[in-house]
């Protein structure tokens, strides 16, 4: 971004911040907020549940295609260099093999458009895809085998032999830092901010902590492996994908193959977990290129090891947190700085400073993320990027300060509760974290916590409690649009290029749409997961519900406008404006006047219409610059640490959330619990083992990369304030990513309270608790 562009952007941000509330999206609260009963918030079971348990929900690797071939990849074994020789003769001669594709015979392709470089760009990196003999990381695909069966493809891939001319590679953090760092940039904005002289304020503060925390690489491990079933139909490419962004995928693949966006049709009706990893990666491009050469449909499904080789995860971090405080606990200085690693070919530095921007008031701030460059697979978004690991460091440091000052950790946090956003000065749209803390502490039994570590014992188990603040921003990305089709029988179909990844989107949105239109749920059909539907909606950043909600609001307004145009003098609604009416009882009624009502069926029948179709786009998301908008949570953890073996067991966990209005109590509770479980993995076991000698990920399987299983997960209790945010669609804020934030620190703080040992490097493993 040029200096001029930065200046213009800064002026526009200031103008939006100072504009009257009424000019903003959300300046007038969504009318649904006023409805205190009905479908919104009801614990409705997922509509797709029966389809999934009956095996009728078709995932990406389950679409049948006639004469289909199966793909297998061959991966490089060096971190940097060039392919000197590539012997594919044995593979080509193997049974069932139809094609072996490498840089020697691949079609000419453009690089993947790097994610966030354009509105619809979805690529994990911007390197050429099998266009030359260059190797950029250990695990880069160097050949694709197509065969009649998956077993034949896998066997033939094992027969490919490669030799390399290696080049110097940077594969250790120490070497990367020695080469120099560069400023981190996230979503087009620098990850650096200074307000006042925080170092001087820290030095002058009567109480302070200054500590370094580290977190390791972590890998995506969605239960559904990355997969696609695709075919060329003439010049049209049809892709059945496991995708978080069908519109992004269609545009990006069109760019790569040099065709029109309308020639790529992407469907993704069901996704078995995404978490930021299911965007565009090399396996999509390679399968499509190989399919074009072979002239046959192709199915590609990465193995679990293949996911580690091709799909990036969370990068490692080294974080310094320093806090200076007065005797009453109020912060004079808040410093959160550090280094992350990344490749030259992507732009996803882990933005760990984001929580520190808004969570606490302080007299001065120093926030900074620097980037060191490694030769490795490009990292990417992973559930709550930045916040998941940033809250570990920030919330652990606050606990350390509370212990040093002999203050209750909750009271120290509340004492530094800001009245407005502490770094931007904008007002909070809605913030009730103190209420969440008070209610959660009472329910969890925080008053039974001993302030002195190591004093509560059950046999050889030491028992402790810890807490931490969870926080994640409210996002709503541009591009939301929706199409509503209303039929003469009073049914509505809503189409939007959104996604169902197991979180209950289709169910919650059906509830909201039914409530908004005044229909029963069985009269509403919510259609998603198709690039030919309206909208450019990414299922990421916990923003999809807001994006869908805002788009449907716009489409409903357009629908009501058209319906009122159809109302002649014989209609009870004649002469009314869209803001005068609301959906109820299968039609529209005048607000505050029960007698003035007309059914959708009657309105269409009088007009001689079988259906009415409208499409509309959501307004730009200016509300995120006008208000400081965040989901929050108070996380409470109880652990048991065995003083003999060092084993740590989480025995209880409670998340008390402030996320605005909850759309579906059942699916939201599941999202909160799922995030907390992923946070337990982050805290206690997840770690990508990266061999710094050769840049290879060594634990690319569930045997060696550990994630929580049933026996690792305790009773998890969740609760929420359910206070609507007056400035967001439906009064709701995101629930998908908030659950993982704060968990790492809550566990680490509970471990300290149990045994007196402070672990500052995740994961909290036995070796870090044994010994003196």
Briefly say what this structure is.
With 772 residues, the chain is an alpha+beta fold.
Please, could you describe this protein's structure?
The chain is α+β, with helices and mostly antiparallel strands and 772 residues long. It has 19 helices and 32 strands. α11 (387-405) packs parallel to α19 (743-755) and α14 runs parallel beside α15 (544-566). The longest helix is centred in the C-terminal third of the chain and has 23 residues, at 544-566. The radius of gyration is 27 Å and the shape is globular.
Largest sheet: 7 strands, mixed
* Radius of gyration from the alpha-carbon trace, in angstroms: 27 Å
What's the N-to-C terminus distance?
51 Å
Strand content: 15-25%
Strand order of the largest sheet: 3-5-1-15-12-13-14
User: Would you identify the regions where 5 or more consecutive residues have pLDDT less than 50?
Assistant: none
| Helical content band | 25-40%
Tally the beta strands: 32
Please count the helical segments. Answer: 19
Class from helix and strand fractions: alpha+beta
Mean pLDDT: 96
Quick one: overall form? globular
Question: What are the key terms here?
Answer:
24% strand, alpha+beta, globular, seven-stranded mixed β-sheet, 19 helices, six-stranded mixed β-sheet, 772 residues
